[in-house]
Structures are given as C-alpha cells and as structure tokens.
Amino acid sequence: MTMRNRNVAKSIPIKSYAASFQRGTTLTAAIGELESGVAALSWGERLDIIDALVQVLDGVYAHLPLKRALYGFDPIRALEHLRQNVPGLTDLQFHRELTTLTNHLRDAHTQYSGPHSIAGAVATLPFLVEAWGPADDCHYVVSKVSDRKLVNDPRFQPGVTLTSWNGVPFARAVDLHADSETGGRPDARQARALDSLTFRSLEYGPPPDEHWVDISYIDLKKIARETRMPWRVVRPSLAPNGGSQSGSARMHRGIDPAAEAVRRAKKLMFNATLWAKERAPASRQSRSRSLVSKFEDFLSARTVQTSSGKVGYLRIWSFDVDDDQQFIQAAIELLRKLPDRGLIIDLRDNPGGFIWAAERMLQLFTPNAITPTRFGLRATPLTNAMAAARFNQGELGRWADSIASAPANGEPYSTHLPITSVEQCNDIGQHFGGAVVVVVNANTYSSGDLFTAGIVDNRIGPVVCIGEATGAGGANVWTSADLGAAMKAAGSSLPTLARGANFTIAVRRAVRSGDAEGMLIEDTGISGQPYSMTQRDVFESNADLIEHCARLLAEQPRTRLKVVRNGRRLRIATAGLDRIDIYADGHPAGPSRRLEGKSTANVLLPAGTMNCEVVGFTDNIVRQRRRLFAK
C-alpha cells in the first residue's frame, strides 16, 4: 500500500534567481505578469490585422483548398465572424482568438504572432516529459529537470512517472491538449502536445490558462506524490549564425518558428554549460574558432560503439542557419572524423530552417545526382500580380507564366519548380561513403520533412520513424513583412500591422520527387520503419535505438573509396568495388580500372587538370563518387 504525499512548490520571486543570467536569455517573469504586458490595440488596429489575414489567406495561402477539404474549416468565414466580435474582446482575448483560429489550420507554418511585448518568449515548466513504449501502452516520464531552485520538491527528479495533470489522467491530458495543437495527423498533434505541456512559444500562441500546474507522479520508490509548479517565462536569443536573416535565407525558409524558439529554450534550461559557452563574449573565444564550433548549436557528431561495430552518429538539431555553404562545410568536417562503416542521422525534433541547407546536404551521402523537392503557388489574381511584378522576378518570376495560364487551363496551382536548384543540390558531391539510416519523429518538421523526403525519394537509405511519419510541414514560409513587400511591388498593399503584430504564412507548397513524384508533404509527412522508444532510450542516450539502427546499417552493402590528391597524383584505396572510372575536368582519364577485394592504386592525372572525379562501381552500379577540386 502506498502513501500519497503532497509537496506544493512555492512560486519563487523572479528577482531571486534572474540576476545570475544575462538579460534577454533568462527567466524574466511569472506567467501571471503577462496579461499586463500585452500591448493595447484599438478597434481599428484589430480590424487591420483581420483584413490582412483575410487578404493573404484568400489570395496567397498555399494550402487553403487542402485545409478546407480535410478539416471542413473555412478560415475566411471564421475571421469574418471574429470581426463581428471585436468590440467585446480584451486584447488578450483577441490574441487568443486569432492564435486559436490559425491553429485550426493544423499548419505550424501559418501562424499569427502576438504583440512585441511577448515576442521571443517561451513559457516553461522546469522539467521535460518524454514517452516510451508503443502507442497503446505508453509511459510518460520526466526525463530532465532544470535548476533545483525552480523545483522545490527533492523527490521530483528524472525517472518519475507522471500520472495526472491538474487532476486529469495524464494520457487524457495529452489528448485534450492535442486538440489545440497544429499537426495534420493525430500522432503529430499528440507529439506536439506532449512537448508543449511544459514548453510553449508565447509569440505564436496564447499563454497557458493556468498560472501553475498540479502534478501527480510516482517517485523512484514507487510512492504516489503530488507537487505544484508555477509557469515561468524565458526569452532565449537566436543562435549565433542562425535565424535565416539574410535575403536569400529569409525567403527560402521552411520552419516551425515556435518549435525553434522552444528548442532554444530547452538548451537554456537543460544544458547550462553549452549555453554559457555559446553566450561567452567574443573576447573569451578563440580567434581561431573552428567552423564546426560555430555551428555546434545546429550540428553535433560522435562515434558510437554497437554490437555491429563502430558507427557514426550525426545529430542535426536545426537547419535554421544563415549561411548554407558554411553549414555544409561544417558537416563535412564532422563527417571526416566518423567511421565509414555507417552513419545514423538523427533529425528528431528538428523544426526546419533554411531550405537550401537541408536539400544541399543530401548530396554528401550519395554518389548519385540529387533531385530536389518542387514547390508551387496557388493560381490567384494576387499571386499572378506578384509573380509578374518586376521587383519580384528574382523570387517568383519562374512561376509567372504557369500562374498566368492556369485559369485558362483550369489549374488551381502553378507549375511546381525547385527552390534549391539541381545545380546547387549537386555542386559538392559525396563525402560519406558508408551506409546511412535516418531517424525522425512526428516533430521533425518543414525543412526536416524535405531532408527526409530527399533521403527516401533519392534512395539514399532507410528511415526509422518514432510515430507514424514526420511532422508533415510541406511549404516555403514567408513573414508578413516579406509578403507585404512582394504585394506592394504588385500594387496590392497589405494593411499596416500595429504594434509589432505579424504573421507567417505558407506561400509555396512542396511536392515530392522520385517514386513519390507529385505527392504532397503537407498533412501526410514521410513515413518509415516504425520504432517505439524504450526506457533505455530515454535514460541511456538512445541505447536501443542506436543498436536498432546499427543493425540496419550492417544489412546494407558496404563499399569504401578513399582518394588523396597531391598535385597531379592520386592515391586511391578501395574496398568492395570491382571497377573505378577517373575523369579529369569532365573527360575520361584513361580506361576503366578493374579491382578485386581491397585495392590501392596510384594514378597520374593529365597535365593541367583542375578538377577530377573518381567513380566506383560494384556490378555496374555506382556505389562511390569523389570530386576533388583544384585549390
């Protein structure tokens, strides 16, 4: 028989611990202080926001026909209904109504962002909840706990099992919260609900209704207990080299911005050492800081020992970088240090980012040419005017003719064309020759969806999925500021959004290539081999998941090609290949060379060769390819 104990944690005054952190990166307020911080909007300013959303949803929003068909929800009518209720709403109620309305689209790309007073803010509880086990026998546990100053219950620690949330059985609480989340599938909404039970972006959603949470749990001694924890607010800054702020990056994003803010908040809360290192003044950092260290918020890698041998493990936390070229070079540097037996690429909880960064990275893992995802716009009078405007030619000009001709052909969409060109997707070539397996979950979103689609559609390797599929975000997302500029160039002005209110919107929808040619990513995602997380995975650094992936890697054919160039001389080492072809500046440099088993060869390139390429075959199938560019 167990005893029920109650430990009600007191709300700690913010001043007692905020002083130890830098301004702009720390806990800043109790959740109850937010109502007084919401900017006041006049009736006219509220109506301008509604007018702007009606205009862009009706004339630009890429998924409007799909959302109406799938969910029976018409956002245009809902906004017109909200317009009638504007006089009777407080500012916080108006903010809640708009965010709830846009969430009904189940699209994390298309979100209303609240007043500047809560921009960048994330509401947090000082612990992380994770689930393990199959969907029909799921266990909800606390996997991490933040600073003990924020948790007054010493028995509430990693490993405790959660049983209820504000008096509601925990599994039911997740289901109820999922109803208000984005996500095209029930499992995707549940995954986001589990995440947002303890972390919620306040820029793209309303604050929690409650100021604190009453939690029932089973401690490590199997005793039932209760505790209370207040919501707090953090303001994590953008990552160095992140944020996709340059012109090309900003217009070519595929990201869930709320999930990126939450990702940064988790780093602040649960990895104080890395956060402090990242925020250290430039004077304390080495002047010779490596490229890898500049992108350590986005990429990490290590070698893992498994029963199948040593394999590489590459975690891609986010694609939300500003420089895709440097990002890929950092990835190449990491790959050089990993064993070539095989590679696990972990994209779980990746919220997306710069589309070029995601799609260009695919070429590092295959000897074959990459075919990128393609994007199209709705064919409407507004998109027709935008694509035809001279100012927009660089961004939308390629779609102009098909949009203009669509009404005559009865087509609702333009031609679908790549945002990342075929040339960009194949300008570097293969840098990892081992087998590859990719791990995703229902919180892998947007550019993470695109990367996963590229892995499957270009037949690079298998995908292991926790949940039914990836998060199903298939679009290129623009901010209201960028959309307003494009509309202004087309002679159609967007109403001014008052006091920093803004929104993001899916402008171009994505369709897949290869065997899945033309299939939508939105609301479907990319599926793979199903896998259920285990207790060891949650508390022992994904031990069982890594073993599972290593077995998949061991089942794939293994070949090896290493090429070192010194001037005109090439030293080539191979394994598992029966033939290599060598090209100098695009021309054959002699006949094919036959190989047996492990082989080495020394080759002299023609005088004046700038760039060379070595291609390895097994049974006439290209297995390896290396490009060596003149320095």
Q: How would you briefly describe this protein structure?
A:
The chain is built from 21 helices and 32 strands. The protein has 631 residues and is α+β, with helices and mostly antiparallel strands. Helix 4 runs antiparallel to helix 5 and helix 6 (170-178) packs across helix 7.
Coarse structural class: alpha+beta
Q: First CA to last CA: what distance?
A: 74 Å
**Average pLDDT value?**
90
Share in β-strands: 25-35%
Strand order of the largest sheet: 14-15-16-20-21-24
Give me the number of helical elements: 21
Largest sheet: 6 strands, mixed
What are the SSEs and their pairings?
Blueprint: E1 5-8, H1 15-18, E2 27-30, H2 43-59, H3 64-71, H4 75-85, H5 91-103, E3 111-113, E4 122-124, E5 127-132, E6 139-145, E7 161-165, E8 168-169, H6 170-178, H7 186-196, E9 199-201, E10 212-218, E11 224-230, E12 232-234, H8 247-251, E13 253-255, H9 257-270, H10 272-279, H11 291-294, E14 299-306, E15 309-316, H12 324-336, E16 342-346, E17 352-354, H13 355-361, E18 374-376, H14 381-388, H15 393-396, H16 400-409, E19 417-418, H17 422-425, E20 435-441, H18 447-457, E21 463-466, E22 475-479, H19 480-489, E23 502-511, E24 529-530, H20 535-539, H21 543-554, E25 560-566, E26 569-575, E27 579-584, E28 587-588, E29 593-594, E30 599-604, E31 612-618, E32 621-628
Parallel strand pairs: 1-11, 15-16, 16-20, 20-21, 21-24
Antiparallel strand pairs: 2-12, 3-23, 4-9, 4-12, 5-6, 7-8, 7-10, 10-11, 13-17, 14-15, 18-19, 18-23, 22-23, 25-26, 26-30, 27-28, 27-29, 27-31, 31-32
